[in-house]
UniProtKB/TrEMBL annotation, chain A:
<dbReference type="GO" id="GO:0005525">
    <property type="term" value="F:GTP binding"/>
</dbReference>
<keyword id="KW-0564">Palmitate</keyword>
<feature type="binding site">
    <location>
        <begin position="43"/>
        <end position="48"/>
    </location>
    <ligand>
        <name>GTP</name>
    </ligand>
</feature>
<dbReference type="GO" id="GO:0031683">
    <property type="term" value="F:G-protein beta/gamma-subunit complex binding"/>
</dbReference>
<dbReference type="InterPro" id="IPR027417">
    <property type="entry name" value="P-loop_NTPase"/>
</dbReference>
<dbReference type="GO" id="GO:0007188">
    <property type="term" value="P:adenylate cyclase-modulating G protein-coupled receptor signaling pathway"/>
</dbReference>
<dbReference type="GO" id="GO:0001664">
    <property type="term" value="F:G protein-coupled receptor binding"/>
</dbReference>
<feature type="binding site">
    <location>
        <begin position="183"/>
        <end position="189"/>
    </location>
    <ligand>
        <name>GTP</name>
    </ligand>
</feature>
<feature type="binding site">
    <location>
        <position position="189"/>
    </location>
    <ligand>
        <name>Mg(2+)</name>
    </ligand>
</feature>
TrEMBL record, chain B:
<dbReference type="Pfam" id="PF25391">
    <property type="entry name" value="WD40_Gbeta"/>
</dbReference>
<keyword id="KW-0677">Repeat</keyword>
<dbReference type="InterPro" id="IPR001632">
    <property type="entry name" value="WD40_G-protein_beta-like"/>
</dbReference>
<dbReference type="InterPro" id="IPR016346">
    <property type="entry name" value="G-protein_beta_1-5"/>
</dbReference>
<dbReference type="InterPro" id="IPR001680">
    <property type="entry name" value="WD40_rpt"/>
</dbReference>
<feature type="repeat" description="WD">
    <location>
        <begin position="242"/>
        <end position="283"/>
    </location>
</feature>
<protein>
    <recommendedName>
        <fullName>Guanine nucleotide-binding protein subunit beta-like protein</fullName>
    </recommendedName>
</protein>
<dbReference type="InterPro" id="IPR015943">
    <property type="entry name" value="WD40/YVTN_repeat-like_dom_sf"/>
</dbReference>
<keyword id="KW-0853">WD repeat</keyword>
Length: 401, 451
């Protein structure tokens, strides 16, 4: 009887001890993983960076995975042409009866009406060669091209030009998306996606493992869940350089660059990110290069005090440096001068360019190694301030082979 | 009709709506002639005084390696499930402080957890927008089965609750502004509350509470500063909307009688609303906390409804105990001998009201109850019997103990109270598991309950 009692007791105690052991092992393992959080406003290029990681540091996309992108790409094509058609209609109305700049050619009008009527991109069937020809004709229509020039007033995805120029290839029977197609494909991220990778070769970094999280960029109350990321090593903040003249998808009165600035300032102020490094990826530099000479930076209120000096290519470099300084200023305004643990870096990126991203991540790795070393140094100094030499050696774990 | 004309009409309509809303508010304000505290004062209710031993931390549950975000008690078997930043759900036995299960979640970003009323399943939800339901196995050789996953929400899952008396259904609230009712077995969505219709919330829904007396009624709290009352049978519109808070409504909780519910908000106040009249009955506000900007993380009511426990997010980790009738603060868990060192994220009341559990960012959970009065039993067959009395049970001193198969009978000669304790766990061999004696029945007064 007494034995029966202890048997039940000891079984439970054994379970409890086993659970405790497992949790401790897990916790130790987790400490070695460096967590990186990808943040940024919608369409700033976060998911593209995510896909690049897969290509660069993991095994890339295999055939079935590539084929899974076909519906997404076709939906993007329909969405692009539909947005352009609706835009045409709106611009035509605003211009009035006299102008015919935005009126489609007669042979395209019929198809145009049909596409405009379909409610959602999912409602369309997959793009076939017949439809693709009609889409291409629409795209080549001067009215649509005129609307495309005013693309910043519409909510056009960045892949518009690339996909619509290649629409016949995309509609082929045996089409398998190329790596470039996949990187351009736009699908709204919901929930959270994560991936683990190790930066390449360097023997110093044996065992360093990064885990990257992409939390989707749309406007849902970030303040309600941001505290979950307390303790991440660094935040990779993606800002699209080319959005200074565009407005938000959710609110067409708010300028996107201003929104990005507000988001960065808010993040820098959060108490849980006091010791977190901020690595700003100034993304879509390729589009910025084409835009900077045509559209003045002062289209965005934040860049009001920018004075262009010349109109040649050197101006682009100057404009970029100006934007970089502006971001640095936001960081300085929101960080206490006594905070030395936090690192801040800006990187010029074009997310769809593999080479640039690879180089960028090498620099990121360097910056985070510096952060780690600073942290260890601070630990050592703290111990020195407290006491013995033994403590110093214990704290210098990273020096052991 | 052109776009410009449509826009103008929409604008006029929204102005009209605004005006009507203001009229409703004015009319409501006219009807409120009193609140609970004034009523209590007029009728000479006095504030309850809490003695230091009335609220003591009797267990500290340690084991999580990250901040604990949510907890839930089970109905029948007195277990607690907790969810933490380390990506695990742990099921605890609060009596023995031992862990019975640890579940590693597929996505480590968990925000909420719930226990089914039969104690067999636990659910969790978080940033992955999926609610996962795990069935707990009683035999430890088999690992926890793969979860049933409920997909469909377009935003993070902020709260999930099993529908009482209908274990096969679970209710979830999400950052996409909707609540959804699911059938667990088939993983199908039964209905959606909110979403496209403008009668739903216009911002993230962050909390839920189901009415235990009438399980088809529930209330949801949202970042649009309102709480809405819903009837599961009509998903198209909310039955009622309750306004008045100045910030996100972080937590909602029905009172045990099901006629009123309490809310806690980012504006540092708690309020009680009446479902029958739709009015706010009382506000619980502390000027010191308001000036600090402390947010209310979670609330819980005592089983009689007399006490309201509210956990705040300020650096002091205050956890006030309010007297609901007189709106006075009567205690603060922070002042007890070993309080939490970081803010409390969630408070839960045990099903019989005998204990309260708090989960905190300091990685522990604490169980609070009235100071245990232990009665030492007689040595019998070399077995020491310790009987601990529950909060709701007044201490009576027993003169004689006798052991029978599976039970202890205690008889008090003076009052002839008979109390029979039965143990719940294990097989019925005599004397087993008296450490876990868990329920009692008092023949004289007819009360029964769990320890």
């Amino acid at each position: 009887m007494g034995a029966g009692c202890t048997k039940v007791q000891s079984q439970e105690e054994a379970e409890d001890a086993a659970i405790k052991r497992n949790m401790e092992i897990e916790a130790k393992r987790e400490q070695k993983v460096l967590k990186l959080l990808l943040l940024g406003a919608g369409e700033s290029g976060k998911s593209t960076i995510f896909k690049q990681i897969k290509v660069l540091f993991q095994t890339g996309f295999d055939d079935p995975e590539r084929r899974s992108f076909v519906p997404v790409i076709h939906a993007n094509v329909y969405q692009s042409i539909r947005t352009l058609l609706m835009g045409c209609k709106e611009f035509a109305e605003r211009e009035g009866e006299s102008s015919s700049k935005y009126i489609l050619l007669p042979e395209n009008q019929n198809y145009g009406e049909r596409i405009a009527e379909v409610e959602s991109p999912e409602g369309c069937s997959l793009l076939d060669e017949d439809n693709a020809l009609k889409v291409q004709n629409c795209w080549k229509d001067p009215a649509i091209q005129a609307a495309y020039l005013r693309g910043n007033e519409l909510q056009l995805p960045d892949c518009t030009e690339f996909f619509l120029n290649n629409v016949l290839r995309l509609a082929a029977q045996d089409y398998i998306p190329s790596q470039e197609d996949i990187l351009f494909a736009r699908q709204q991220t919901t929930g959270i996606v994560e991936t683990e990778f190790s930066p390449d070769k360097d023997p110093k970094n044996k065992g360093v493992c990064y885990r990257l999280f992409d939390v989707g960029g749309q406007r849902n109350e970030r303040r309600k869940w941001m505290h979950l990321f307390d303790g991440v090593t660094a935040i990779i903040f993606c800002a699209s350089l080319s959005e200074y003249d565009q407005t938000l998808l959710e609110d067409d009165k708010q300028n996107r660059m201003i929104e990005t600035r507000e988001l960065l300032a808010w993040l820098l102020q959060q108490p849980w990110f006091e010791n977190t490094s901020f690595l700003v990826f100034l993304n879509k530099f390729d589009i910025f290069q084409k835009k900077a000479l045509k559209v003045p930076l002062s289209a965005c209120d934040w860049f009001q005090d920018y004075q262009p000096l010349t109109t040649n290519n050197q101006e682009i470099e100057r404009a970029y440096r100006y934007v970089e300084r502006k971001f640095k200023k936001i960081y300085e305004e929101n960080t206490a001068p006594s905070n030395i643990q936090r690192q801040f870096r800006t990187y010029r990126t074009t997310a769809i360019d593999e080479g640039i991203i690879k180089e960028t991540f090498r620099l990121v790795d360097d910056a985070l190694t510096i952060q780690r070393l600073i942290q260890e140094m601070l630990n050592v100094l703290h111990v020195l301030a407290c006491s013995s030499l033994e403590g110093v050696f214990l704290a210098c774990e990273w020096q052991r082979p | 009709m052109s776009l410009a004309e449509l826009r103008e009409r929409a604008f006029q309509a929204s102005l009209q709506v605004k005006e009507l809303k203001e009229q409703v508010l004015m009319r409501r304000a006219q009807l409120i002639d009193s609140d609970v505290a004034s009523f209590a004062q007029q009728n000479d209710f006095s504030t309850t005084q809490l003695q230091p031993h009335d609220f003591v931390c009797c267990r500290t549950l340690q084991g999580h390696t990250g901040k604990v975000y949510a907890l839930d008690w089970s109905q029948e078997r007195d277990r607690i499930v907790s969810a933490s930043q380390d990506g695990h759900l742990i099921v605890w036995n609060p009596l023995t402080s031992q862990k019975t299960h640890a579940i590693k979640l597929a996505s480590s970003w968990v925000i909420t957890c719930a226990f089914s009323s039969d104690g067999v399943a636990v659910a969790s939800g978080g940033l992955d927008s999926i609610c996962s339901v795990y069935v707990l196995n009683t035999q430890q050789e088999q690992p926890i089965s793969d979860p049933k996953t409920l997909h469909g929400h377009k935003g993070y899952i902020s709260c999930c609750k099993f529908v009482p008396k209908r274990d096969a259904q679970i209710l979830t609230s999400s950052g996409d502004g909707t609540c959804a009712l699911w059938e667990v077995e088939s993983c199908q969505k039964v209905s959606v509350f909110g979403g496209d219709s403008s009668c739903g919330h216009s911002a993230d829904v962050v909390s839920l509470s189901v009415n235990t007396k009438e399980p088809h009624i529930f209330v949801s709290g949202s970042c649009d500063r309102t709480a809405k009352l819903w009837d599961m049978r009509t998903a198209s519109r909310a039955t009622q909307t309750f306004q008045g808070h100045g910030g996100d409504v972080n937590t909602v909780q029905f009172l045990p009688d099901g006629l009123c519910f309490g809310t806690g908000s980012d504006d540092s106040t708690c309020k009680i609303f009446d479902t029958r009249t739709g009015h706010q009955l009382q506000q619980y506000k502390d000027s010191h906390l308001s000036s600090e900007g402390a947010k209310v993380n979670s609330i819980a009511f005592s089983i009689s409804g007399r006490f309201l426990l509210a956990a705040y997010s300020n650096a002091d980790s205050d956890c006030y105990i309010w007297d609901t009738l007189t709106a006075e603060k009567v205690g603060n868990l922070k002042d007890s001998p070993n309080p939490h060192t970081m803010p409390v994220s969630c408070i839960g009341l045990a099903s019989d009201g005998s204990a309260v559990c708090t989960a905190s960012w300091d990685r522990t959970l604490k169980v609070w109850a009235s100071n245990e009065r232990e009665t030492q039993g007689v040595q019998h067959d070399g077995l020491r019997v310790t009987i601990t009395l529950p909060l709701a049970y007044k201490p009576v001193y027993y003169k004689k103990f006798s052991l029978q198969a599976g039970t202890i009978k205690a008889i008090d000669k003076e009052t002839t109270l008979h109390a029979i304790w039965t143990h719940l766990r294990g097989t019925s061999s005599n004397g087993q598991a008296f450490r876990q004696v868990a329920s009692y029945r008092n023949r004289a007064t007819g009360t029964a309950g769990n320890i």
